[in-house]
């Protein structure tokens, strides 16, 4: 009965995603299919990659931390991305090649975030006995430091250059480079293929460290590799379109409530589908209702922020 119920929910989600994508592609197209395939198809691919990436990384991250109100953003990746963008404008201006060239900007941003993740991971897990909560605490502190440094430079730069920098502060699917989509898709495919070998451990890891050790899993070995996978995926999605703070929190918790299961094969695919539906619907609202007066990240963060407060109040009552 439960399997049939989940199949029905997956079918509804897939149908909803296809319906929204079709509506997004054809609405007010005026029969200009060259424009539709070139412009809107690129946006849909960016939405699928970004939404899938964030949902997949958040499911794994919440399993490793055994906490459903945390997202990978707590490790400071978003803040490091904005620090680099702000520093590039502060030091060289908005006309410098490091800011104007999307390919170079993407490569440097991903490289910096992956390097930061590996150094942080290497430093904190060099000794035995260090746990994941120390990693989260250090990531939170460094993220706050990066954010403060960015704010300091933002008040010093030229107001006109700050307006250009604002475009990097919010996720946007309007100016994604096709070359970046191809590179990102290949990188995401390779990383998820590597992570798939550890999927069989996720259901046990969700029980906690002690239970996983008692059931024979090499806990530290598996957790370290899955954390690197999470960091790399978050780095790619952030550098591709910009930071979306509450998307992972929103879609993963909705997947938990919708499917009512702890099986990660179901939760991962359910979260990915919900994420794509949420982003396509949000982009439709941005383009057809608000006529580009806002961005999809503002809408997602507003809804996700309200949902985050609801989760906090709900957990508080359970205590």
Explain what you see.
By secondary structure, the protein is an all-alpha fold. Helices cover 79% and strands 0% of the residues. The protein is built from 14 helices and no strands. Helix 2 (33-65) packs parallel to helix 8, helix 2 (33-65) runs antiparallel to helix 11 and helix 2 (33-65) packs across helix 13.
Task: Reconstruct the topology from this structure.
Blueprint lengths: L1 H25 L6 H33 L11 H16 L4 H4 L1 H23 L7 H23 L4 H11 L8 H18 L3 H7 L3 H6 L4 H23 L5 H13 L4 H26 L6 H23 L1
Helix pairs in contact: 1-2, 1-13, 2-8, 2-11, 2-12, 2-13, 3-5, 3-6, 3-7, 5-11, 8-11, 12-13, 13-14
What fraction strand?
Answer: under 5%
Q: What is the number of helical segments per DSSP (H or I, 4+ residues)? A: 14
Low-confidence stretches are none
Largest sheet: none
Termini gap: 32 Å
List the defining traits of the structure above.
79% helix, mainly alpha, 319 residues
In short, what is this structure?
The protein has 319 residues and is mostly helical. It has helices at 2-26, 33-65, 77-92, 97-100, 102-124, 132-154, 159-169, 178-195, 199-205, 209-214, 219-241, 247-259, 264-289, 296-318.
């Amino acid at each position: 009965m439960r399997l049939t119920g989940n199949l029905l929910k997956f079918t509804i989600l897939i149908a909803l995603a296809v319906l929204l994508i079709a509506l997004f592609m054809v609405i007010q197209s005026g029969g200009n299919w060259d424009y539709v395939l070139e412009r809107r198809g690129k946006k849909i691919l960016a939405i699928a990659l970004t939404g899938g990436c964030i949902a997949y990384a958040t499911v794994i991250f919440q399993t490793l931390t055994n906490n459903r109100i945390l997202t990978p953003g707590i490790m400071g990746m978003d803040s490091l991305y904005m620090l680099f963008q702000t520093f590039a404008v502060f030091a060289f201006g908005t006309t410098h090649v490091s800011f104007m060239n999307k390919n170079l900007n993407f490569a440097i941003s991903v490289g910096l975030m992956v390097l930061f993740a590996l150094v942080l991971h290497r430093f904190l897990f060099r000794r035995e006995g260090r746990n994941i909560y120390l990693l989260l605490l250090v990531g939170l502190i460094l993220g706050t430091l990066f954010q403060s440094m960015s704010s300091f430079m933002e008040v010093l730069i030229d107001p006109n250059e700050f307006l250009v920098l604002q475009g990097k502060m919010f996720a946007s699917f309007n100016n994604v480079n096709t070359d970046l989509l191809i590179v990102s898709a290949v990188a995401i495919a390779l990383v998820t293929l590597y992570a798939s070998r550890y999927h069989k451990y996720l259901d046990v890891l969700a029980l906690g460290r002690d239970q996983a050790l008692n059931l024979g899993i090499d806990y530290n070995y598996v957790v370290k590799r899955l954390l690197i996978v999470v960091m790399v995926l978050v780095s790619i999605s952030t550098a591709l379109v910009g930071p979306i703070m509450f998307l992972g929190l929103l879609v993963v918790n909705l997947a938990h409530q919708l499917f009512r299961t702890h099986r990660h094969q179901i939760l991962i695919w359910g979260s990915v589908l919900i994420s794509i539906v949420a982003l396509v619907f949000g982009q439709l609202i941005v383009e057809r209702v608000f006529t580009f007066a806002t961005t999809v990240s503002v809408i997602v963060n507003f809804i996700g922020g309200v949902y985050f407060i609801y989760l906090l109040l709900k957990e508080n009552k359970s205590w």
